[in-house]
TrEMBL record:
Gene3D superfamilies: 1.10.8.660, 3-hydroxy-3-methylglutaryl-coenzyme A Reductase, Chain A, domain 2. Signal peptide: none annotated. GO terms for biological process: coenzyme A metabolic process. This is 3-hydroxy-3-methylglutaryl coenzyme A reductase. SUPFAM superfamilies: NAD-binding domain of HMG-CoA reductase (SSF55035), Substrate-binding domain of HMG-CoA reductase (SSF56542). Keywords: Oxidoreductase. It comes from Candidatus Korarchaeum cryptofilum. PROSITE patterns: HMG_COA_REDUCTASE_4. GO terms for molecular function: hydroxymethylglutaryl-CoA reductase (NADPH) activity. Belongs to the HMG-CoA reductase family.
Length: 423
């Protein structure tokens, strides 16, 4: 039976892990070779951005144990930070004991903004726009007939007034269902196409015609139960709740709390070729939507004393177009996930974000965040000073035992080891 619950996955050699993922996802030999080498063709890179001179690689890892809406997933994650993949996998294992994650996502509605200034009569301008609303929506849909034929397209139009020190602005919001695309190009094109008509209707001057990355009509949610037995007892539950309350009510803590969430989400986003900057901007602005920056997750304890966690945030992701269409590893990552729809990808990413956040809170409430993190950090230090694969474990063990995890001590230990071998 196909399952993401793979005991001891982290202890296996890299090629053995890759073999398991190949069988799970039905990867071809060619796809396996692309993952093993981790290379983006130079000619593809040269056409993706400007002034390319080379390539930059990051580790491509797999988080295990995820059960989301009753379906098993292996989660591709690209990240340089130690302990993130292990923490997500461990949290997913704990949630799995209670049925895994329940997730949902709204339709893929993106917001296109048209900024109008120097409007002579705001009330009359709004009246005229709303009187022409249906025609404006129809005109927007004519700009992308394929999207409309597929069932997407412009859905609604709203008008806002934003006050500034130079006077009020009229802001027109066009709401567009971009289906399985992230949709930035589509909504920008529609905004630019409608701008002349908006100018005529309002008598004002249009400047910006662009999407908003606060995609608050495109939300993903996930929740999970973590039984008190699975996570270490009532005292651990209480500690997690106090850690959560700290973040909920203090923006300094909330910033790092939410950064931990994005550790998981952005790792999946990088693997699958998403716009990570748009996701970060949307998440953090959504966290401040009440006027105070707070947490993207919520936690509570049920009558049995078990811990529940939930997450809600905007996730404008795509499974077609953009980098997804051209980057060979992004295509493979989506194949490993087994997703074709953007909504399913958003649900997966929300679940990973919740798992990552729970793992961080549990670590903070128990042994502290550094225990697992520093072991992996020590490995990076050992490698940075030139330790060979056969020397790394001993260098790490000695640094951790002495509680001196730094470059200078790693160099000293390595010199001692090598001089002892020579003697």
């Amino acid at each position: 039976m196909r399952t993401s619950r793979i005991s001891g996955f982290y202890n296996l050699p890299m090629d053995e892990r890759l073999k398991i993922v190949k069988e799970f996802a039905g990867l071809t030999d060619e796809e396996v070779e692309v993952l093993r080498e981790g290379k983006l063709p130079r000619e593809v890179a040269d056409h993706m951005i400007e002034n390319v001179i080379g390539l930059y690689s990051l580790p491509f890892a797999i988080a295990t144990n995820f059960l989301i809406n009753g379906k098993d997933y292996l989660i591709p994650m690209v990240i340089e930070e130690p302990s993130v993949v292990a923490a997500a996998s461990n949290a997913a294992k704990m949630a799995r004991d209670s049925g895994g994650f329940e997730a949902e996502a709204t339709d893929s509605i993106m917001i296109s903004q048209i900024q109008v200034v120097k409007v002579p009569d705001l009330e009359e301008a709004i009246r005229r726009i709303m009187a022409e609303k249906d025609k404006l929506i129809a005109a927007a849909n004519e700009m992308d007939p394929l999207l409309t034929r597929l069932g997407g397209g412009a859905r609604d139009l709203e008008v806002r007034v934003v006050g500034t020190e130079a006077g009020p602005m009229l802001i027109v919001h066009l709401l567009v269902d971009t289906l399985d695309a992230m949709g930035a190009n589509t909504v920008n094109t529609m905004a630019e196409g409608l701008a002349p008509t908006i100018e005529r209707l309002t008598g004002g001057k249009v400047y910006l015609r662009i999407l908003s990355n606060l995609a608050d009509r495109r939300l993903a949610r996930a929740k999970a139960k973590f039984s008190k037995e699975a996570i270490g007892g009532e005292e651990v539950v209480e500690g997690i709740m106090w850690a959560y309350r700290f973040a909920k009510h203090d923006p300094y803590r909330a910033a790092t709390h939410n950064k931990g969430i994005m550790n998981g989400i952005i790792a999946v986003a990088l693997a699958t070729g998403q716009d990570t900057r748009a996701l970060e901007a949307g998440a953090h602005s959504y966290a401040a939507r009440s006027g105070k920056y707070t947490t993207l997750t919520n936690y509570w304890v049920d009558d049995n004393g078990d811990l529940w966690g939930s997450i809600e945030l905007p996730l404008a992701v795509g499974t077609v177009g953009g980098v997804v269409r051209v980057h060979p590893i992004a295509k493979i990552a989506l194949k490993i996930l087994g997703v074709e729809k953007a909504r399913e990808l958003a649900m997966i990413m929300a679940s990973v974000g919740l798992a990552q956040n729970f793992a961080a809170l549990r670590a903070l409430a128990t042994e502290g965040i550094q225990a697992g993190h520093m072991k992996l950090h020590a490995r990076n230090i050992a490698m940075s000073v030139g330790a060979s694969p056969s020397e790394i474990d001993e260098v790490v063990e000695r640094m951790i035992r002495e509680r001196k995890i730094n470059v200078e001590r790693a160099k000293q230990i390595l010199e001692e080891m090598r001089s002892g071998k020579k003697a």
